[in-house]
Every structure is written in C-alpha cells, then in structure tokens.
Design a protein that fits this description.
The chain is mostly helical. The chain folds into four domains: about 60 residues, no CATH class; about 55 residues; about 70 residues; about 100 residues, no CATH class. Helix content is about 55%, strand content about 5%. It has nine helices and six strands; from the N terminus they run ββββααααββααααα. The strands form three sheets. Strands 1-2 form a two-stranded antiparallel sheet. Helix 5 runs antiparallel to helix 6 and helix 6 runs antiparallel to helix 7. The C terminus is likely disordered.
Length: about 400
Amino acid sequence: MDSYPTYCDPFYRMPTELAVRVERGDGDAEVIVVMVEKCPEGGCKPYLGGYKARATGKTFHHASTQFGSRKRVVKDTSNLRSRDTQTVQLRTVRAQTRRECGTQMERRGLHLSTDADAPCSVGAYVTADEYWARRAACVVTMQRYWRGHAARARVWGLRQRRWQRTVAARQRAAAAAAAEDRAREREARRRRHPRTAADFELLYNELAAWCAAEAARAAELPEGPPRRAAMAALLRKETRLLQTIEGLKRAAARAGAGARVARTLDLMARPKRWELRDGSAARVATEWTARAAELAALYRALAAPLVGAAERLDVLLHVKWAVRGFECRLTRELVELLDREADLLSRGRAARSMAGLRLRACGLFLRFIETPDFNPEASRFLRAPPSHQHLAVAASKQLVGIAC
C-alpha cells in the first residue's frame, strides 16, 4: 500500500495534546502545550461556521469550533437608574477659534476708526404675551391667505368640471345630430339608390302604405265620377311608381353583377399566400394566377367604354389571341363577334349601334374566363361541392360546347 503524505493521511488521529512552538520578537522561542478537547463518541460538533466541499461532501469547521463554548458576560446595569447617572455634570472647556475677535473701547491715547460702525437703536420692549399675540396674528393671516387660495382653487376646479361637462354634452349632442343626419342620409340614399333586397322591400312597403292611405281618402268621396276619377289617378300613379322601382331594381342588379364579377376576377388573380414559421406572410404568383390576372385585364379592357378605334382594335386583337388556342363553339362564336365589331369599327359605325354586340362579346368572354378548362383558377369558384367537382367541370364543358 502506498504511504499517504502527512497532510492527507486518512488514518491520522489527532492527539489530546499538541506542542506549539511560538517564536518571540527577541528571537527566543517557547514551546506551549495546547490541550485538544475532542467531541465525545457518537456526538457531533456544533456547526459554528466553515465551508463544505461540493466534490466530496465533507464539511470543514472553523478553528473557533475547537474551543469550548464561550459564556456571555452579563453587563451590570444596576447603576443606570441612579442619581449619579441622571445628574448633569458641567465642566469648562477652552477652545481656540480660527478667527480672533475682541472689543476695545476708545480711550485717551487710542484712536479707533468709525468708518465701519453702524448705529443701533434700542426698540420698544416686547413682552412674551405681545410676542405670542403677534405670532398668532401672523398665523391667522397665513391661514386666511391659504384658505382664500384653497377656495379659489376649488371654485376653479368646479368651473373646469362644469365646462368639461358642458363640452362633453355639446360633443354628445353634435355626435347624436351627426349620427341622426347620417341615418337620415342613409335612409334617403336607400330610397334614391336602392341596392339590396331590404331596400326594395322598404320601397314596396312604403308604396303599399301610401296606396292604402290614398285609397282610404278616395273612399271618403261620394259615389260617382269623382271617386272613380280619384281611383283611376291613384292606379296610374301606382303603376308609374312600380315601373320606377322595377327600373331601379334592374339597375341595382346590373351594378351588383358587375361588382361580383370584378371581385371574382380579383380573387382569381390574387397570388397564393401562406404563413411561414417566423409568422411572416409569403406571397407567390403561380402560372395559373398569372393567367387569371391576364384574362382579368383583358376583360376590363373589353368592357371599358370606347375611347378610340385604334385602341379598341388592339384590345380585340389581344382577346382573339387569348382565346384562339382553344377550339370550341364558345371560342368560335366569340371570335366571330370580335371580327364583326372590328369590321364595324373600320366602317366608322357609331359606338351606340354596337352596344348590344359588345355586351354579347363581354358575356361570352366572361364565360370563357369562368371555365376551368380555360382558366384553372376558376375551379375554386364553382358552386358544386369539392366531392362533385368533376360533375361541375363536365357540365361546364357541355354548356360551352367543348365536346363538339
């Protein structure tokens, strides 16, 4: 077995006495015997400080733990409440100040300068009662000024809050009036330019209520020509109003169809978008979205008002190039209409005479765009469910005549 060094021998046992050599300042040395007080068997020394090694888990105590417990010395406090401790002892202490000063009276043979002297006069004698009365008067004055300031601040705060309430009430009244005006304008706009089914239902209800009131007023007339004339006039006016409402309904249907077509074309041409891992959005334009964007631009140019013959012929030529690659009954009819319009333009015909022709061409080109075989992005907007998509595609093919 290898021998351990002295400082780390695990079998070392400390003796009960230790000889300590102490060297003195004069060069002499003295050996002092130190008695070691060991912990009894099975006991444990109290931990009074030290450190613990994390690697081995051993606890090392400070050297003070090798000595016995120290008894606390109780201080004698019996003389703290005696006459001697409560009696002030006076003593005289002399101090030398940094600046010397003194008083010198003028006398014979000594001249003192009076340039820096200041005359002093003795005032009236003030008693303690007068002093405290004057202080009380000053305190009352201060309180008076402070109470006046607090009262003015409170009144100003009340005025501010009242003004704020007034401004808030005015703002609420203005907002209510503006909301009422907007509601009135909205109701008037619903009657002048109806767009939804609720708007037309409102017009029909108001017309029915007006007709009922006029019929009741006409019923109060006596029997004979006056009543019949009033009922005939009411019938004519009701007929004109119904015709007006029907005209507004047709205009609203055309405007709604145009808005739906424009929204659908925009959705078809919109790039694909998805969210990345970092939370940002990615947008990619595929070949089908580019195809849908091209067709949407051609449709808008085809449906736009006529500006000039040269520009219109250029638009017609681009539309023919877009549909010529697909041979079917729809494309043949569309190309025929485009050629007919180009021939009429070359003959100098007025745009008013070609309104129906242009409307038919726009409708056929819109059907071309909405067909998935010509525009794959249109398959997302078919009304058939995804499980029956093939039926919808087959039906659209039969509709436009691709099979022929």
